[in-house]
Sequence to fold (155 residues):
Amino acid sequence: MAALLQAARAAPRTSSAALDLIRAQPNQYIIATLGGRKHILAPRDLLTIPRMPDVKVGDVVLLDHIHELGSRDFTIRGKPTIPTTKVQVQATVVEHTKGKMESIFKKKRRKGYRKTITHKQPYTRLRIGDIEIPSPFASTGSQVAASATSASAAP
Fold:
């Protein structure tokens, strides 16, 4: 417990050390840009954004404009974004839906012109997946294992 408090007080020197501290925390969040706006997102959140025309229900979208990654005790901010090699978040398209009926009333003074336009705004709903912070040791270990298997298969 004392070691954890000591680690919380000392600021990490490298981004990989900061990522390790965030990875050790139970809950993480991100701030990402989707649909032209920034959203604070956590795993398993349901997000409604303006319609994404090029995706279908069930498609998985990789969030690549992540501005901030954090937990209760630690935060990493990108300048302007965090690279996808450091943090990966996927979102699944749950549905394409429409909002409530909106009415727009137009008129011109003293001309007798009145017009009512109604429409429903289209939206896309996304389910946010887990926040994955790849370990630098896991990626090198898999590369070493892959090179070892290819070397043993070569002769």
In short: The two ends are 52 Å apart (CA to CA). Residues 140-155 have pLDDT under 50 and may be disordered. Strands lie at 28-34, 37-41, 46-50, 60-63, 66-71, 75-82, 88-108, 113-132.
